[in-house]
What we know:
Radius of gyration: 29 Å
Largest sheet: 2 strands, antiparallel
CATH class of the largest domain: Mainly Alpha
Mean pLDDT: 87
CATH topology of the largest domain: MetI-like fold
CATH superfamily of the largest domain: MetI-like
CATH architecture of the largest domain: Orthogonal Bundle
Helix content: over 70%
Structural class: mainly alpha
Number of strands: 2
Strand content: under 5%
Amino acid sequence: MISDKLKTSPPVLTDSALSHRRGHKRTVRLPWYGLSFSLPILIWQLIFFVFPLAFLVAISFWLVRNFRMVPTFEWLNWSYMFSRGFFWDAYVHTLAMAAGATVLVSLVAFPCAYTIAFKFRESTKQLLVLLLITPFFTSYLVRTYSWQVFLSDNGIFNAALGLLGLEPLAMLNTTFGTYVGYFTLCLPLVVLLQLFSLMYIDRSLIEAAHNLGCGRLRTVLLVVVPSARIGIVVAALFCFILTFGDFVSPLYLGGGQPPTLSTLITDTTKSGQQWPRAAVIATMMILTLLIAAFAAVRFAYRRRA
C-alpha cells in the first residue's frame, strides 16, 4: 500500500527546482551592452544607406513633365528601360567587365600576396604593406589622368615602342585602357586583403601537407587557398563592387564606348533631366551588387565538408 501511494503521489519540488522552472518562463534579455556599441553603425546605415536607397527607389516611379519631376507612382520608367536594348547591352557589358576584372585582379594579386606572406621577413612585410597603401594617398582621378600620359598614341609606351622600331599600339580609349584603370583602382586593395588572410594561416598545416608528400603547387591549391578562402572571396567581392560601379576608368581610359551602367546614368540625366530613369538604372546596379554580395559572403563562410 505504501509503495502504491508513493507511485501515485506527485513529486515534491524543491526551491531550486521551482526557481529553475521559473527561469524558463522568464523573457530573454537583450544584449544591451553589445547593442550600445553597434548602435552608431546602425544609425549610420539608416541615415546614409537605407533612407537614400528608399528615396532612390521612390524617384524611379516619378515622372518628368516640362523638365520637372512630378511625384507619382507609375511603372513607365521601369517599362521604358527594360524594353530598351541599350540598357541590357550596357548591363551585360558592365557585368562582364567587372567579372573579368575580378578574375584577372585576383589571379595577379594572389602570387604577390603569397610571396609577401611566406617569403619575406617581418620587417620587409611592413615595408611592402606600406608601399601597397601608398597609392591611396593620391586621388584615383589623378592616377587615371596620369595613365593617359602613358597610354595615349604619343605617350610614353608608344614612344618606347617607336625606339624599338615597333608600330604604335592603340591603348587609350579601349577595353585595355579600362582594365588598366581597374587594376589601378583594385590591385593594391585586393593584395592587402589577401595578404591579411594568408598571414594568419596555421603554418603547421603546410608542414603537414609537405610531410604527407604534397608538392608546392598542390599544397597551395589544397591547403593554402581553402584556408584563406574568406579573405580571397572578400577581396574579389570588393574588386567586383568597385569595378561594377566605376565611372572614371570606362570614361577617361575606355572612351565611354560601349557605355557602362555608370556612364549610362550620366547620359540619361543629360537627356531631358530624366532622373527617374537614371534612378531605375541605379536601383538595378544596387540590386545586382546586393545579390553578388550575399552570394559571395554565403560562399565564403559556408562550412567545408
